[in-house]
TrEMBL record:
InterPro entries: RlmJ, SAM-dependent_MTases_sf
Name of the featured protein: Ribosomal RNA large subunit methyltransferase J
Subunit-level organization: Monomer.
Catalytic activity: adenosine(2030) in 23S rRNA + S-adenosyl-L-methionine = N(6)-methyladenosine(2030) in 23S rRNA + S-adenosyl-L-homocysteine + H(+)
The organism of origin for this protein: Rhodovarius crocodyli
Length: 267
């Protein structure tokens, strides 16, 4: 429980995750019926990139800073949301995009971050529970439609296993809900095992979006990241690919960079 996302806000992994999140929310809010968004690893909600944590690492200079001058193409909707002074985390992005008929529910286990989250999101239900427990407890949604967002810190061993189990738990309770789960790519072996765990759990209709800044062979570095989406809206493979291609062009100068959209489980 030592992970603090403020040190990493606005980095390349945030850009990838949030650009895809914006597209997912656009698709989910097209229908007139209400949705619910449950963010089980919410952090503090938004981040000051001039604050001491962001300044100490400077990761945002290699992430969002490389994108801010883009004015056309598949990233413009994402950039319209994130250009304010405070870089929005997933809760702030969801809050900005949801309609009055929709509901946002947040969860953050870290006590200091939870207190900050509550101050910043008045009128929003904010829980302080284990992420996977709260995902099971609060699904299925009353609205019958919505998104469960997982963004674990991966600071302890076994996180891929816990993530696969958590996604399977939501699937068993709410098979129609969309799930989006972020994961790191240091090298390929753990990712291959994670994808297989999702198949073994019996989850259907999973597409993963993956972006890597360099050849993912050095397991000591965060070389890339992925977003596994259960029940992706129609068009995700094509539109997600366009988003990843635009990000790859801007975010990496190294050999071996790339991206892919991969169907892990059939419908």
């Amino acid at each position: 429980m030592n992970y603090r996302h403020a040190f990493h806000a606005g980095n390349f992994a945030d850009c990838m995750k949030h650009a895809l999140l914006v597209w997912l929310l656009q698709m989910l809010t097209r229908k007139p019926t209400p949705i619910r968004v449950l963010d089980v690893h919410a952090g503090i909600g938004s981040y000051d990139l001039s604050g001491p944590e962001a300044v100490r690492t400077g990761e945002w200079h290699e992430g969002i800073a490389r994108l801010l001058n883009i004015e056309t193409g598949p990233l413009v909707d994402y950039l319209d949301v994130v250009r304010p002074r405070l870089y929005p985390g997933s809760p702030a992005i969801a809050q900005a995009m949801l309609r009055p008929i929709d509901t946002l529910v947040l969860n953050e286990l870290h006590p200091e971050d939870n207190a900050t989250l509550k101050r910043g999101f008045k009128g929003v239900a904010v829980h302080q529970r284990d992420a996977y427990e709260v995902a099971r407890a609060l699904t299925p949604f009353p609205e019958r439609r919505g998104l469960v967002l997982f963004d674990p810190p991966f600071e302890q061993g076994g996180e891929f296993d816990r993530l696969a189990e958590g996604m399977a738990g939501v699937w068993q309770r709410a098979r129609g809900h969309v799930q989006a789960a972020w994961y790191p790519i240091k090298n390929r072996a753990p990712v291959i095992l994670f994808h297989q765990a999702l198949r073994d759990a019996g989850i259907r209709d999973i597409v993963t979006a993956e972006l890597w800044l360099r050849d993912p062979t050095d397991a000591t570095r965060l070389n890339g990241c992925g977003l596994a989406v259960v029940n992706p809206p129609w068009g995700f493979e094509a539109e997600g690919g366009a988003i990843l291609a635009a990000l790859s062009e801007r975010l990496s100068d190294e050999a071996g960079a790339g991206w892919r959209m991969l169907r892990v489980c059939d419908e």
